[in-house]
Design goal:
mainly alpha, Multidrug-efflux Transporter Regulator, Chain: A, Domain 2, 2 domains, two-stranded antiparallel sheet, 4 strands
């Protein structure tokens, strides 16, 4: 499929797709007219990239770890496993904070008083869209 179709089907912009290709996360072949042609596996690869971005990995991490998802026997996969573990721990900390926040909000909504303790000051600096920064 060409880049426009891949973009439409995956939800990734053509610019992102070209970037993923430039860093080695996607591959394409050139048709006789010069257009990029991607195979169906590119959709799954983009879905993985988007999910890894959503859970907080940056593109440098993804370039390192995604080949380990596809081929876990390559040499640098130990570092990738460490990075996965770090992100899992970060997500678990986020879940704890969000669970406490949800409990507090539910209690405030139903009773008007707070029984659950507030998270420690400074434990969350910013929450924006799907990224929480500063969780300790």
């Amino acid at each position: 499929m060409r880049i426009g179709e891949l973009s439409e089907r995956s939800g990734a912009s053509a610019r992102s797709i070209r970037y993923y290709e430039s860093v080695g996360l996607l591959s394409s072949r050139r048709a006789s007219n010069g257009y990029r042609e991607f195979d169906a596996g590119a959709l799954e690869q983009i879905a993985k990239i988007k999910l890894l971005l959503q859970v907080g990995l940056d593109m440098t991490d993804i370039v390192t770890v995604l080949p380990c998802v596809n081929t876990p026997t390559i040499a640098h996969c130990t570092k990738a496993q460490q990075r996965f573990d770090e992100q899992i721990e970060r997500i678990e900390r986020q879940q704890e904070v969000l669970t406490r926040a949800k409990s507090l909000l539910l209690e405030l909504r139903t009773e008007g008083t707070a029984a659950a303790p507030l998270p420690p000051a400074g434990s969350i600096r910013a929450v924006s869209a799907n990224v929480t920064a500063g969780i300790r």
